[in-house]
Write the structure tokens for this entry.
Amino acid sequence: MQGINKLLTNVNGVPMLRGVAQAALKSNVDEVIVVLGFEAEKAKETIVDLSCRTVINRDYEKGQSSSLIAGMRAINKSTLAVLVLPGDLAKIETSSINLVIQSYIKEGGHIVSAAYNGRLGHPILLSRELFDEIMLITEESSGLKTLVMNHRNEMRLVETNTENVLTDVDSPDDLRKLADKR
């Protein structure tokens, strides 16, 4: 999606980023940190009135791994786990976020991920035990995907019964499909 900030695209009448941030804020997370990159100031305007903290990733052109690391640098030292929720997960629901959190609280684990029909989705919750490893990920090594695969035996999938945990926006065609589903 060269040259287009998909996070500013309206989905159900609000910018995609705002909708994702609102879902996170309504959930059981303790804090929402939004990492901004491309057109950060424009993106920030869409959430300025929300009670989330923003972090600017000046290295956003290096990919999602750099955004995750920027967010990790902003977390509180006492944080027990982080919930990774991409800003392009346009139709995420608070209930799916809460299912992942509740599973972690009840059963623990290093990685807890939302799933639909057994397919890995988002959000993905990562425990403190993985924080040092997260700080070493790069796009060249397939980023978070490699970390998750390296710990797949320590991962628990939480069935959400909604394909919305799989529906991210990576292309203009994905945006058209979202518009078609309204």
